[in-house]
């Protein structure tokens, strides 16, 4: 009887207690809110403008041929840089995958070593290599391939070369990691059934690594959209990109509201491509 009564009596309400670890997360959340989220909200407010003039800065952005030209030029350079990273990065990652474990560690260390060198230093190094009296032009003249110096700098070619050099590890490292996860027994089974090495590569290995390659390409494309140092130095002010235009609008003109509208448009583009990157990366993990 006492057991029945105890079951019918509702349990006593426990006092509210803070989830474990929440107190440690609050300072980090406040830090992110004040230093990251709040500036973004302020930027969105500046881009919209006061009441009655809402979205006039976006209209000026759409009507301004100069701004649209810079946006188009940035997209063009980002696409070419992404293609260059794919063309150079996939063979490099594949070569690293074919090495012995010790060779893979050495090659991986050489790739990671590039992160220890400042982007500014690496960018200025290209001036020594690609300048009119640089290593490349001297070699071309010595071989008799050209009489005059080839203009590699202060144009789109120099910007793409420098940007590709900086962003190539961002494609190689995740692609190499995806290749290491492949089950080699699948390749060995195809080889035991008489498939040639080229058939194994193009019909088995390459299709299995396409999602990782696509994810790395989207990541490189996103990073190229906001590049500032490399276009400013190797472009010499002749290759305008979004980041350089924002620097002009903020520090020289200044037109903060228009800069906020351009930044918002760039943020939307980045979020769209980031969502695509997450989707492709999820597909690559499933495979």
Model description:
The protein is mostly helical. It has a single domain (about 70-285), classed as MetI-like (MetI-like fold, Orthogonal Bundle), CATH 1.10.3720.10. It is built from 13 helices and no strands. The protein has helices spanning about 1-10, 20-50, 55-65, 65-100, 100-115, 120-130, 135-140, 155-180, 185-190, 195-225, 230-235, 240-250, 255-285. The longest helix is centred in the first third of the chain and has 34 residues, at about 65-100. The mean pLDDT is about 80.
Blueprint (SSEs and pairs):
Blueprint (H helix, E strand, L loop, with lengths): L1 H7 L13 H27 L7 H8 L1 H34 L2 H13 L5 H12 L4 H8 L13 H25 L3 H9 L4 H29 L3 H6 L7 H10 L4 H31 L1
Helix pairs in contact: 2-13, 3-13, 4-8, 4-10, 8-10, 9-10, 10-13, 12-13
Structure summary:
With about 290 residues, the chain is mostly helical.
Overall tally of structural domains: 1
Structural class: mainly alpha
**What low-confidence regions span 5 or more consecutive residues with pLDDT below 50?**
none
Largest sheet: none
CATH class identity? Mainly Alpha
CATH architecture: Orthogonal Bundle
Order of helices and strands: HHHHHHHHHHHHH
Question: Could you name the CATH homologous superfamily?
Answer: MetI-like
């Amino acid at each position: 009887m006492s057991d029945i009564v105890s079951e019918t009596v509702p349990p006593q309400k426990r006092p509210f207690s803070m989830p474990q670890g929440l107190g440690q997360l609050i300072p980090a959340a406040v830090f992110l809110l004040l230093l990251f989220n709040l500036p973004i909200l302020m930027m969105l407010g500046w881009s919209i403008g006061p009441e009655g003039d809402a979205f006039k800065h976006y209209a000026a952005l759409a009507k301004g041929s100069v701004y649209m030209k810079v946006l188009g030029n940035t997209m063009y350079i980002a696409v070419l840089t992404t293609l260059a990273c794919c063309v150079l990065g996939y063979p490099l990652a594949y070569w690293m995958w074919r090495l012995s474990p010790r060779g893979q560690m050495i090659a991986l260390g050489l790739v990671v070593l590039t992160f220890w060198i400042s982007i500014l230093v690496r960018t200025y190094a290209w001036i020594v290599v690609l300048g009119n009296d640089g290593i490349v032009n001297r070699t071309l003249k010595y071989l008799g391939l050209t009489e005059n110096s080839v203009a590699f700098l202060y144009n789109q070619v120099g910007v793409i070369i420098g940007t590709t050099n900086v962003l190539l590890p961002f494609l190689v490292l995740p692609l190499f990691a995806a290749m290491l996860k492949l089950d080699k027994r699948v390749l060995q089974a195809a080889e035991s059934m008489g498939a040639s090495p080229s058939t194994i590569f193009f019909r088995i290995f390459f299709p299995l690594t396409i999602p990782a390659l696509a994810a790395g390409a989207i990541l490189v494309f996103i990073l190229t959209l906001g590049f500032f140092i490399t276009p400013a130095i190797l472009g010499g002010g002749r290759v305008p990109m979004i980041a350089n235009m924002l620097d002009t609008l903020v520090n020289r003109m200044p037109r903060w509201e228009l800069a906020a509208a351009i930044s918002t448009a760039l943020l939307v583009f980045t979020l769209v491509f980031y969502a695509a990157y997450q989707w492709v990366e999820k597909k690559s993990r499933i495979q």
